[in-house]
Amino acid sequence: MATANIPNLETASPSTESRRNAGSRRRFERTLASARKTMMFSEVLQLAYDSFKASKVRFLLTMLGMVIGSASIVLVVTLGLTGKEYALNLISSIGPNMIEMQYSGGSIAGPDNTTNPDFMTREDMLAVQEQVPGLAAASPMLEAHDNVNIGDGLTKNVMILGVSPQYKDVRNSVVVAGRFFDDQDATGHTKVAVLVEPLAITLFGSADGAVGQTLSIRGIPFTIIGVFKERINTFGQSEISEQTMLIPYTVARYFTGTDTVKEIFFSTKSTSSVTTASAQILKIIQGRHRASSVYKAFVMTPVLELMGKIANMLTLVLTLAAFVTLIVSGVGIMNSMLANVQARVKEIGIRKALGATSREIRLQFLTEAVFLSLSGGLVGTLIGLAIPFSVRFFTPFAIPVDWWSAIVALATSMIVGIVFGTLPANRAARLNPVDTLKYE
């Protein structure tokens, strides 16, 4: 029986040996694979932190550029948003919901073969109010010029505008003294007037001093009941000048003897409906006049959109300028890391002799570069956010803050660290361990 079992052991032995060899090969491959990643990433971070502590002053000075660059990005975006909001608010104060209808050209033939301008009429305004939904206010406007008697035989040429009480709301005007005429003044054909502030100061010395005074227009005395101004100075680019007097349209029409108007102002309840409403108004008025007559609708929407685009472009240009600071800081990080590699040649050689791979050396120095840039970026971003938040907290100014600027600043800091840390990391990884151990 013993001799019979020997051949079985001999035939089983090669199979057992094969299994042992296969197991050994697998263990060797696992060991080889683990050798390629002997260090955990937490250890790499610890080494980067230790390196930072060993050269705090140099690394802090290197980080300073990243702090300034990241803070600049956040602050530039904040300033751009603040400027944009301020500019849009100024333009909007003219009347973002306002639609200004003007007669631009064309004529109608008279009975004696004469031609007359095809002006708009008050009936056009009433027709628009009946047919266009979403209108909040409307006002016709008559324009006349006359010399008013200011006493002592002196006269002054003024521009007289006949408007409705809703004109104040449509044009978003500000009453600085007294009051604006109301519906009762308009229906009662009351002889009252509202002066623009520069004219009131010129004639009576102050806005308050003008209230209650009397001016004579074509021999008719008008009592000044208020003084107004534009919410934003248009420098004479609107229908309002520094010699403007407003009177009720129902009174002004007696000076012309017709129902024609120079302009018609409308105001919508919603800013989003301005473009649609202006197209409807233009169509209605055009349909009530000759096809050859030309009318135009002016709205603030294109101006606001253009101003927004200009502000965005300026913000983008300034932000790109801030990115230059980060690039310069990245060059500083690269120089610092190259010097760091040169100073730690002996350390790199010892680590390689103890089994550190080129991949680990590369990862260590790249991590240090990213640690530098990202730390500086984080500090700069916090500073950049702290300034506008401090202004919002300690002052009444609500400065807008864009959180995307903080994300962009941090992401850029990381990218700068990776890009400018790659060269020093590769140089450290390529060092020959034999040469490094002999380096003095």
UniProtKB/TrEMBL annotation:
Residue stretches making up the ABC3 transporter permease C-terminal domain: 320-433
GO molecular function, one term: transmembrane transporter activity
Membrane topology listed for this record: Multi-pass membrane protein
Cellular component terms per the entry's GO annotation: plasma membrane
Residues passing through the membrane, by range: 59-81, 310-334, 369-391, 403-423
Cellular compartment(s): Cell membrane
Region entry Disordered, spans: 1-27
Superkingdom of the organism of origin: Bacteria
Keywords from the named record: Cell membrane, Membrane, Transmembrane, Transmembrane helix
Chief localisation class: membrane
Compositionally biased spans, kind Polar residues: 1-16
Record domain MacB-like periplasmic core: where: 60-282
InterPro entries: ABC3_permease_C, MacB_PCD, Macrolide_Exporter_MacB
One Pfam family recorded for the sequence: FtsX
PANTHER family in the cross-refs: ABC TRANSPORTER PERMEASE YTRF (PTHR30572:SF4), MEMBRANE COMPONENT OF TRANSPORTER-RELATED (PTHR30572)
Family: Belongs to the ABC-4 integral membrane protein family.
Protein name: Putative ABC transport system permease protein
Organism: Granulicella aggregans
